[in-house]
Amino acid sequence: MTSEHVKCLIIGSGPAGYTAAIYASRANMNPVLYQGPQPGGQLTITNDVENFPGYPAGVQGPIMMQDLENQARRFGTDIRYGMVTRVDFSSHPHRAIVDDKHEITADSVIISTGASAKWLGLPSEMRLNGRGVSACAVCDGFFFRGQDVAIVGAGDTAAEEASYLANLCRKVYMLVRRDEMRASKVMQQRVKSAPNIEILYNTETQEVLGDEEVSGLLVKNTVTGEERVLDVTGFFVAIGHKPNTDIFKDYLDMDESGYILTEKGSTRTNIPGVFACGDAQDNIYRQAITAAGTGCMAALDAERYLVTVEMQEQQLVH
Ligand code: NDP
Hints:
Layout: E1 2-11, H1 15-26, E2 32-34, E3 48-49, E4 59-60, H2 61-74, E5 78-80, E6 84-88, E7 94-98, E8 102-111, E9 115-117, H3 123-127, E10 133-134, H4 137-140, E11 148-152, H5 156-166, E12 171-175, H6 185-193, E13 197-200, E14 203-209, E15 216-221, E16 227-230, E17 234-237, E18 241-243, E19 274-276, H7 288-317
Parallel strand pairs: 1-2, 1-8, 2-5, 8-19, 10-17, 11-12, 11-17, 12-13
Antiparallel strand pairs: 3-4, 6-7, 7-8, 9-18, 14-15, 15-16
Helix pairs in contact: 1-2, 1-7, 5-6
Bound molecules: NADPH dihydro-nicotinamide-adenine-dinucleotide phosphate.
The site of NADPH dihydro-nicotinamide-adenine-dinucleotide phosphate (NDP) has 15 residues, from helix 5.
GO cellular component, one term: cytoplasm
Cofactor: FAD
Catalytic activity: [thioredoxin]-dithiol + NADP(+) = [thioredoxin]-disulfide + NADPH + H(+)
């Protein structure tokens, strides 16, 4: 196994990781960033991004991520393709193993591994992803204004996104697999009182229809067995997210869903020198701009940490 030592290791390459990289490299922290299995993160499977400030005409998700990567490279970030497969945060410097064959010790670690949307797992859902199928109403709802859409899920996210879509779309079908919703009472009340949301209980999605774009949805009532086609052009999946934090669970405090807990108003985790930003620690906002904001915070927190450690070491020498 090869090995090296770095000042700052950044794990993950979405808006949080690249923003952390821009700030860390401009602060002479010589960061090394590992991109992980999906370089660029969730935005690379989105088409148009219209809500990221600074792009008045909108931008394609993959292009924006390439821009962020280029910006991080310009200031000297060492960006590498590879996946951190194991970590050991039990002593300082922290240890990370990349692709099971390269060991890195790091004075500071910034975790920006993001989260992945859960999908139903239908082949047609994958095939039409980004062409009418979306896991983010706030990102993509605007493209369906005035149209009929469906959303699957019955938690707070689905209820919130159904309400968001109801303000834009002509009609929103909400597909609930059981005979009741999981969402909080207040959120349930909101969707039930919206005149253009129709809730279909005991309903499963069988197939997303359409060749190039979504043209309908085949659904089935699990009680009666009746199948029907919903005439929709958009299909939103809101059945939860999973933070990509499994490799850290032996060391970092997390909530019950696996989101990393950080100290209020900072990106500090329970381990000194380890910082978390982006969707790996945020199950509320989950936006590119908020991820970028916390990426900036993580780099500033890491820089302060490194300065403090350096000062303590100098005091020990003198
Ligand atoms: P949840 O895990 O709470 O809900 C997921 C929903 O998706 C459930 O209703 C579940 O159904 C349904 N589901 C799961 N798999 C399938 C499937 N294969 N087919 C159909 N339906 C499926 O996730 P959320 O993202 O909604 O929320 C995550 C956390 O974030 C929660 O704690 C929530 O309260 C919180 N949150 C809070 C908000 C707020 O306070 N404003 C806003 C958004 C989220 P079933 O019920 O049958 O299991």
